[in-house]
Design a protein that fits this description.
Largest sheet: 4 strands, mixed
Order of helices and strands: EHEEEHEEHHH
Shape: globular
Radius of gyration: 14 Å
Structural class: alpha+beta
Number of helices: 5
Number of domains: 1
Strand content: 5-15%
Number of strands: 6
Distance between the termini: 40 Å
Strand order of the largest sheet: 2-1-5-6
């Protein structure tokens, strides 16, 4: 089942699978930080930038995975955007409080809206800025 709604994911049910764009400097910085967090070693990290066209997971195309941050939960369901971040945070002990907080309504809508209407539009600018600073 594919969904964009958040679901509480107890840490015991990880691993999550995180799909990210390894060619995006903002994404790689952020994923690197999450990977270093305690619990990050229990998560499957998939750089889809070099994946062939088509599905990278059931119900998830490479293009969709490159366009929005996506997490596959242990039950195979997908969450995207801000919901995916809340699921990831809930799976990391240091961020679990924030993950669970942002998995609840109305905060789940707030974090998803911020991702969609604030982060995604400025992502290209942030990418250029990070590339210039490197």
């Amino acid at each position: 089942m594919t969904t964009t709604e958040p679901a509480a994911v107890p840490a015991e049910e990880t691993p999550l699978t995180v799909f990210y764009d390894g060619t995006c400097p903002v994404c790689t910085l952020e994923v690197g930080a999450y990977r270093r967090c305690r619990g990050g070693e229990r998560i499957n990290w998939v750089d889809v930038s070099n994946a062939p066209p088509g599905e990278v997971a059931p119900g998830l195309s490479r293009d969709d995975a490159l366009s929005r941050f996506t997490v596959m939960r242990s039950d195979g369901s997908l969450s995207r955007g801000g919901h995916a971040f809340a699921d990831l945070w809930a799976a990391l002990p240091a961020l679990r409080f924030f993950g669970r907080l942002f998995q609840t309504w109305p905060l789940s809508s707030v974090v998803n809206g911020a991702y969609r209407f604030i982060f995604l539009p400025i992502r290209p600018v942030l990418q250029r800025l990070v590339r210039a600073l490197r």
